[in-house]
Design goal:
Layout: E1 8-18, E2 22-31, E3 36-39, H1 49-61, H2 69-79, H3 86-107, E4 127-129, H4 136-148, E5 153-157, H5 171-182, E6 187-191, H6 198-207
Parallel strand pairs: 4-5, 5-6
Antiparallel strand pairs: 1-2, 2-3
Helix pairs in contact: 1-2, 1-3, 2-3, 4-5
């Protein structure tokens, strides 16, 4: 049975700051039916997401039917083709999240239900620490606290952000302290995130 249109009336962005350091942008879409959908794009573009959503994407969405997920995604993708870069793609992802949230609410089902159904009932989680500027002992303390909370795996950042071998590297000391703090049975992952050139990544990997 076809559903009545879920007409979009407003699209904006709500920003939040955590610990005075990390800024997050959340896309909010309101509809004529009174339903509101929320989407969370990557925080890496939080500074530019509001302008992109409200100036570039909102005109493409207001007055449209939120049920038309594929058509709206294509409208955003093609409608920004001359200016679309990573920031615009990130903003589109937040809008797409919010649209799916709206459709799930309108249908009264979780989003996974119309994305193919339930695949598993449990998902293993790991604790992730994203700040590279933490000292090894502080990183170890936080990792140990996460294990005490029940996490069985931990991921930490190493290297200098997009540094390509620039600056001092305390990766070995960081991993040593964290491993000692969490014990041998907890999985430990490291994320260099573009910090190393290929040859330096291999060298650090061998040392770790």
């Amino acid at each position: 049975m076809p559903h009545p249109a879920l007409t979009i009336t407003a699209v904006d962005v709500v920003t939040a700051e955590i610990d005075g350091r990390s800024r997050y942008a959340f896309v909010r879409i309101r509809t004529e039916a009174g339903l509101t959908g929320y989407g969370e794009p990557s925080p890496s573009a939080a500074a530019t997401t509001p302008a992109i959503v409200e100036r570039q994407l909102r005109p493409l969405l207001v007055g449209q039917d939120a049920f038309q997920l594929e058509r709206l995604w294509e409208a955003m993708y093609l409608g920004t083709y001359k200016v679309r870069g990573q920031g615009t793609s990130i903003a589109i992802s937040g809008v797409d999240n919010a649209l799916h949230d709206l459709v799930g609410k309108a249908l009264g089902v979780p989003v996974y239900q119309f994305l193919g159904g339930l695949y598993r009932e449990r998902v293993r989680m790991y604790a992730s620490f994203m700040h590279r500027d933490l000292e090894p002992l502080e990183m170890a303390r936080r990792a140990a606290a996460a294990v005490e909370q029940g996490f069985t795996a931990v991921k930490i950042k190493i290297g200098v952000r997009h540094g390509f071998d620039a600056g001092p590297d305390n990766a070995v000391a960081m991993v040593r302290e964290v491993r000692q703090a969490i014990g041998a049975d907890v999985e430990l992952m490291v994320d260099a995130n573009s910090a190393y050139s290929v040859h330096h990544a291999i060298r650090v990997g061998r040392r770790l």
